[in-house]
């Protein structure tokens, strides 16, 4: 592989005009496609194989034309202090608002509070339910404006009016902190390279890669039903890995220049060595993201594949466009240790002036300390991560609803008003669908199911059964006594389903529970069930891949165990902030509650891929030194001398990019941004920088042991570039087609 990538790097350097033209053309094509594509339509949130989804599909079949997936809005009214909603003036205002709402072209139905028993017992709060023909993302702006105008007119009449539901949902934004994250990345790159030009290359290539990826997602959003969150997550991951991959190529290029090589040769060797690590690191990220398909939740699968595509683009750009831009930069990219004049280049330090050897860098000093005290460093790192992981034992999973919105939003204020007037469970009604098609007495079955539910705990109200035109299926709305995300509501859902099992045995009628609350519960359970198989699949495939890369059994095993430590510690931090409320004000978390259901499995996928990035980039340098004759402990120090500074810069950049998304208005994006940023911190600075060298120092030569039969069976991918070095030592050019020597 190293020889092939070496040739690719030199070709891109020589044919830089052609390479740059291709990538610019792809960016333009993707941009035009995004600009001309129709707006994204409805984002289907289906969960195949769950009872909630089965019930939803049954509603579509038995109640045609009811727009079961249409947007909804609850316009909540509160009377002024000392008045009630039944007062003549207030009632007239509400009825006028209902009439105005009913005039909308996309409105399917509007329920009058006074005819639909939607006034609280004390008479101070009422609500009107509005159902639309299309989903919230498909609503015309004029329809949303009409909803807001009707609410404002009622406010002008003296009422407190808030609007809940998904009719006013907005596309999430990330805020200015995303730009701050990129600015931090730029500063780190300048400090790392000592050159504005060298620092600008990774930023430029990463932005081009993300531009192509996100524009492609936007262009395909309508056809593939991709949500707005999909492009945000692809941007988040694409920016982070795009900068990091280019950073490693440019860093190796400068190191090759420092050894006296010509620029084209240095570009070829940089792509042949660091580029090999980029390919395998990117492959682990892609495996982890595409592996999300095993969960069998279409939305999560699409998110993973879209992000994986952006990562693949980042790898291709690092291997081709980076050497092409290095060709354009020429002598403006300095060898390692040299700085541009603007940043203090051209001045010798005191040690150089006196002819003394340069002082060992921080990475060398740290690695030397770790190999002297490996057991103490290992214990300290493991205990520290274990302590950070303790909150994960209290992990509660759920999906965000209007109750998790900031208190500044009208959706959250409507949620609070409904809780005040009708009880906390009113915001999470359960819809029970009774399929009595095979029963001789459907009406009696509907009544029996309704009576059975009324006798369960935590039930406040049960509406009369509402049969369809055929009379064989009915819906029953159940109002729990507890809020939607509570354990009590989850227990109620299971209790209704258990009761339905008995009814089916007696009558043959099937009872199903659906609605957003039941759907959230099913999502959480499905994700929990899929976590272990997903871990086995992703970690297993990556373990095999790392055996090929490192030609070792214990090094990949240590990498996998270290990842589990870092991801558990990161989950503990997420629980502490978003569930317990620690530092919630600093993170902009206005409402604590259950952790998003897909957070654990998404973090496992993304963090594993990123963790293997640092493992590959850092440990391949150690293996390279070991293969070339250094003793195990010295190889660890050599690996840190060449790689620690760059890996540290890459980790800081990735943390800055992820942390930039904490400013998002979307709770899911905010949580993922924080979780990935803290996971990178734990994995890069505790696991890879402390635990990994400590374990390698304790294992010594055993770390690189591989059974001879397996060594013969494995393909030799030559990640360390041994084939290039062998060709040079034998006096032939690497361009010759020769099989690289086995390491």
Tags for this model:
alpha+beta; elongated; 743 residues; 11 strands; single chain; 24 helices; four-stranded antiparallel sheet
Task: Explain this structure.
The strands form three sheets. Strands 6, 7, 8, 9 and 10 form a five-stranded antiparallel sheet that branches. The relative contact order is 0.12. A hairpin with a 5-residue loop joins strand 8 and strand 9. Residues 346-355 and 735-743 have low confidence and may be disordered. The protein is elongated, with a radius of gyration of 30 Å. Helices cover 62% and strands 7% of the residues. It contains 24 helices and eleven strands. The chain is α+β, with helices and mostly antiparallel strands and 743 residues long. The protein has helices at residues 2-14, 16-36, 51-62, 88-102, 141-156, 177-193, 196-224, 228-258, 263-290, 298-329, 350-353, 362-372, 374-389, 410-422, 442-454, 487-507, 516-550, 554-579, 584-587, 599-627, 632-659, 667-699, 708-713, 722-729, and strands at 72-78, 107-111, 125-132, 160-165, 397-398, 430-435, 459-462, 466-467, 473-480, 510-514, 595-596.
Summarize it.
This protein has 743 residues and is of the alpha+beta class. The protein is 62% helix and 7% strand.
């Amino acid at each position: 592989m190293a020889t092939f990538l070496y040739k690719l790097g030199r070709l891109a350097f020589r044919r830089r005009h052609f390479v740059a033209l291709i990538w610019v053309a792809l960016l333009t094509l993707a941009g035009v496609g995004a600009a001309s594509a129709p707006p994204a339509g409805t984002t289907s949130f289906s969960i195949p194989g769950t009872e909630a989804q089965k019930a939803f599909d049954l509603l579509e079949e038995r109640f045609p034309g009811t727009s079961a997936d249409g947007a909804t809005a609850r316009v909540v009214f509160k009377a002024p202090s000392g008045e009630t909603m039944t007062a003549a003036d207030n009632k007239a205002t509400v009825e006028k608002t209902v009439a105005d709402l009913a005039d909308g072209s996309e409105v399917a139905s509007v329920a009058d509070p006074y005819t639909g028993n939607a006034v609280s017992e004390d008479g101070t709060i009422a609500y009107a339910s509005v159902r639309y023909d299309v989903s919230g993302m498909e609503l015309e702006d004029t329809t949303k404006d009409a909803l807001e105008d009707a609410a404002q007119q009622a406010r002008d009449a003296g009422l407190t009016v808030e609007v809940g539901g998904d009719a006013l949902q907005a596309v999430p934004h990330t805020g200015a902190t995303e730009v701050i994250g990129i600015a931090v990345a730029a500063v780190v790159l300048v400090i790392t390279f000592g050159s504005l030009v060298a620092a600008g290359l990774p930023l430029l290539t990463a932005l081009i890669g993300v531009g192509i990826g996100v524009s492609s997602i936007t262009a395909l959003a309508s056809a593939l039903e991709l949500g707005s969150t999909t492009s945000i997550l692809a941007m988040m991951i694409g920016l982070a890995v795009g900068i990091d991959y280019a950073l490693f190529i440019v860093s190796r290029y400068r190191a090759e220049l420092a050894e006296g090589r010509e620029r084209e040769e240095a570009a070829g060797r940089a792509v042949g060595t660091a580029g090999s690590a980029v390919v395998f690191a990117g492959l682990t990220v892609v495996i982890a993201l595409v592996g999300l398909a095993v969960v069998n939740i279409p939305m999560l699968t699409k998110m993973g594949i879209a992000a994986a595509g952006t990562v693949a683009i980042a790898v291709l750009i690092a291997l081709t466009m980076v050497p092409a831009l290095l060709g354009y930069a020429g002598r403006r990219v300095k060898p390692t240790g040299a700085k541009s004049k603007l940043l203090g280049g051209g001045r010798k330090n005191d040690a150089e002036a006196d002819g003394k050897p340069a002082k060992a860098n921080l990475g060398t000093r740290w690695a030397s300390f770790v190999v002297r005290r490996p057991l103490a460093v290992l214990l300290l790192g493991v205990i520290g991560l274990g302590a950070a992981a303790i909150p994960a034992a209290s992990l509660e999973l759920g999906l965000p609803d209007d109750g998790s919105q900031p208190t500044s939003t009208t959706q959250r204020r409507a949620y609070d008003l409904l809780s005040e007037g009708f009880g906390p469970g009113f915001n999470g009604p359960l819809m029970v669908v009774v399929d009595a098609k095979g029963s001789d007495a459907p009406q009696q079955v509907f009544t029996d199911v309704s009576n059975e539910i009324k006798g369960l705990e935590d039930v406040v109200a049960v509406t009369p059964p509402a049969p369809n035109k055929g009379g064989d299926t009915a819906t029953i709305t159940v109002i729990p006594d507890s809020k939607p995300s509570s354990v009590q509501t989850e227990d109620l859902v299971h209790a209704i389903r258990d009761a339905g099992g008995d009814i089916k045995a007696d009558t043959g009628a099937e009872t199903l529970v659906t609605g957003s609350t039941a759907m959230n519960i099913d999502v959480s359970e499905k994700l929990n069930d899929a976590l272990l198989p997903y871990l086995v699949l992703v970690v297993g495939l990556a373990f095999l891949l790392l055996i090929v890369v490192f030609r070792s059994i214990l090094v990949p095993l240590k990498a996998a165990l270290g990842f589990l430590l870092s991801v558990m510690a990161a989950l503990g931090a997420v629980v502490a902030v978003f569930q317990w409320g620690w530092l919630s004000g600093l993170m902009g978390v206005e409402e604590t509650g259950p952790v998003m259901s897909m957070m654990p499995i998404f973090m496992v996928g993304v963090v594993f891929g990123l963790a293997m990035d640092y493992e590959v980039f850092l440990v391949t340098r150690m293996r390279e030194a070991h293969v070339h004759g250094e003793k195990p402990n010295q190889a660890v120090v050599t690996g840190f001398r060449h790689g620690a500074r760059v890996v540290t810069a890459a980790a800081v950049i990735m943390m800055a990019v992820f942390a930039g998304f904490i400013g998002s208005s979307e709770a899911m994006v905010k949580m993922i941004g924080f979780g990935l940023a803290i996971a990178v911190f734990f994995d890069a600075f505790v696991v890879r920088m402390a635990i990994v060298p400590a374990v390698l120092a304790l294992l010594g030569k055993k770390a690189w042991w591989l059974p001879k039969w397996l060594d013969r069976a494995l393909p030799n991918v030559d990640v360390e570039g041994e084939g290039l070095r062998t060709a040079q030592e034998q006096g032939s050019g690497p361009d010759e087609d020769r099989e690289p020597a086995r390491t």
